[in-house]
Every structure is written in C-alpha cells, then in structure tokens.
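seq as requested:
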Amino acid sequence: MDRLLVLVRHGQSEWNLLNLFTGWKDPGLTEQGVAEATAAGEKLKALGLSFDVAYTSALSRAQRTCQIILDGIGQSDLTTIRDQALNERDYGELTGLNKDDARARWGEEQVHVWRRSFDVPPPGGESLKNTAERVLPYFKAEILPRVLKGERVLVAAHGNSLRALIMDLEGLSGDEIVARELATGVPIVYRLDADGGIVEKQVLAD
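struct tokens:
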C-alpha cells in the first residue's frame, strides 16, 4: 500500500521578496514563486507521482502553488480542500512590517525570540506552539487518516504550518523544529507505515 504524503511550502510571495512578516495577509506569488511551484510540479512528475486529494490553506499563495503543481502533473481537476487550519502562523502586530523595521522598533533580541522561539508569541499573534495547536488536530482528523488508508495526499501550505506537521511526523522537539528551514517550492515526500511512522523521506531540492 502506498501511503504517500507530500508537503510543499508555497513559492516565493511578494512579501517574502520584500522581507515582510506576512502571516494571514494574502499577497500573491512573485515570478520566482511561480517558477518554484512549476519546478515542484516537474520534480513530482519526474518521479511519476500522482495524488488522490490535495489540501491547502485559505491563502492564495498556497492555493496557487497547489494548482500550479497539479497542472504540472496533469491533475488540474483534482479535489482540493482549502482550510484556514493550514494557514501560516499569525504574526499579530508584526504583520506587514519589514523585519529590519521590527528590529528597530522592538530590538533585535526580542524580534529573534518572537521568530525563533517555540512558545513565545509576538503581540497579538501566534507562537509556533499556538500554530501547532491549530494545525495538528486538523491534520490528525482530516489528512493523516486518508494517508494511512492508502490515499496519496498533497499538502501545499506555509513555512510554519508545515513545521508543525513535520514536528509531529518526525518526532522533533520545539527547539529542533524552530531551527528547521523550509525552502519555498521544495517538495518533501514522505512514505509512511500503517502506524504513521516514516518509511522513507525525500527532499526534492535542486
């Protein structure tokens, strides 16, 4: 039985390019982001992969990445489920700020804590721990059961919502997952056993 789960962070967004905290705001993909999503589809097609269902967030940068990938593998009409449970971490008062401006306002050390600690949220926003508390119940109720019964599932989402999934799948600590970098548009291919353990992992980087 092929228990396949593929995770992809969306391609570069307009706010990624500008070095802004994005969170739940909804900028589109840049040309580079479109190219990254296209390349992700080509890599998955080269492996001969196809899917039974796709999941993405309520944000357009993830949705467009998902659709570009599906177009690229010849599955343009695949059932795609969109849910804000898979949205990026909410950055609260940091949202829309350039990261350098945020450092000037709150200090480099404080901004670093907000960005890279597991459980300290920025003002009005979510920590990665909060994000995981939103993402993981949805994953375990809606997505993982489909993988475990043999469906092939694509998830196109965001750096921090995917970190929450990876933390759970790989059994990582909070400190370990905040140090994990996820490149835009790079598929991570997991094959799981009947209990959800990882049999094989491939990162389809260039």
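The first helix runs from residue 14 to 17.
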